[in-house]
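pasting for ref
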Amino acid sequence: MPARGESSPVDIRAAIERFLSSPGLSDATRRAYRFDIEEFVDWLKARRARLEDVDIRTLADYTSALGAARPGRTPRRLAPVTVARKLAAVRAFLRFTLGSARVPDASFAPKRGRRLPDVPTPADVQSALEGMDGDGALSFRNRALVELVYSAGLRAQEAVDLDLADVDFEQEIVHVHGKGDKERVVPLGEEAAYRVSLYLREARPALANGAENALFLSARGRRLDTSTLRRILPHPHRLRHAFATHLLEGGADLRTIQELLGHSSLSTTQIYSHVDGRRLRRAYDRAHPRS
């Protein structure tokens, strides 16, 4: 029994289950959180530390432990993004269990290098699109879908969330429903407009099953989901990166690309700034007499 003035020790296993039973967590998040939290708890036990005694020094030490080389035939270190993810899970658990006042706001995770993922060239994109051509309704749908993702720089969820009324052929624009219920308008490219209209005329009627307003339909006539999109296009976000990169290389400025991508902050769009630097260098080399 704890002495007078001391708090009772926390039942860690019960605390973990209470935290993971929160209705706000998806099944995938629960699985990931469980692994990361139990890893932290095992680390605490190895140090003979109590959960209720966790403080800023404890979290700093744990961050160092996560960042240390892992033993094995080929020692390796966790990527900064992985360390940050594990710390986010631990922080969420500690705030839930001990209260937000007990969890320091200081950031311990190593800074993540912001690099642009491998981006397909315009020729790569063209080749991939041409490989989707076919005569069936699903081939028409797939080509139209991928053309629109690339033409408008759409996230996977934004693409499948589109309704029929969101594509305005007369004004050549697409109304996009983005993250956080934010809406934006992006231009509808000529090739995308042609492919979408072809899909609507030649394929969608054969897929439609009832009064479904979704632009892109599954083989069963329901709204397409992101898992199906990823089967058609394994890494749809690469086309979003290609959209931004190719615009920048063509002369668009970062502010315009920020609006087209739906980024709330320019700092998010600045991942593409090194591309802009290369374009400026080429222009400089062409034009400056002392280049």
